[in-house]
Amino acid sequence: AQSVTQLDSQVPVFEEAPVELRCNYSSSVSVYLFWYVQYPNQGLQLLLKYLSGSTLVESINGFEAEFNKSQTSFHLRKPSVHISDTAEYFCAVSNKAAGNKLTFGGGTRVLVKP
Amino acid sequence: GAGVSQTPSNKVTEKGKYVELRCDPISGHTALYWYRQSLGQGPEFLIYFQGTGAADDSGLPNDRFFAVRPEGSVSTLKIQRTERGDSAVYLCASSFPGSEQYFGPGTRLTVT
Questions:
Q1: What is the pLDDT of residues A52-68, one digit of tens each?
Q2: Which of A36, A90, A99 sits opposite B56 (nearest CB)?
Q3: A54-to-A4, A102, B84 alpha-carbon distances in Å
């Protein structure tokens, strides 16, 4: 079985400040890791993913996440947030043996304040 | 190209009624997934199809829930004898095998 824990349910942050969203997972097999974003009144969109290779992955809009196998973590960071980054962020894990079904964390709501 | 579509976008039904939720995956995607997202929570896996067959239905909460994908494309999630606890957003996603899942906008089900 696999599980995901997002330690922060809400993160308020000022515009242009850095943000870190924490994600820890549990699995008995090798996993793939994902961050999804859900903007207000929109569907889930993939933000970035780790499948293999370099442990640091980046998105096109300035987010990055680092896979840390020893700490079973996949924290998401952005050095300077914009108002438009206000959204809910979900960390998720899957593995090939389980048909790649996603197990999600509970989500972290990011509210960017001017 | 067209993304994953789901109909209806909103469904309000009375307790005890039967509902069907439809998912149109991206053309060519053989894998199709259903998830349920309750208020304030992350999505939870319900069922996964590879082609026409249900490869994993371990997430279906009970036997009131059933899903089909008869021609390996469109899928229908069926809920019998709905209960207020079934109220949630039902999400569908599709993908090529082993690849990124693309999500639809969801169907918001409200059971009164």
A1: 888 899 998 899 999 99
A2: A99
A3: 21, 21, 46
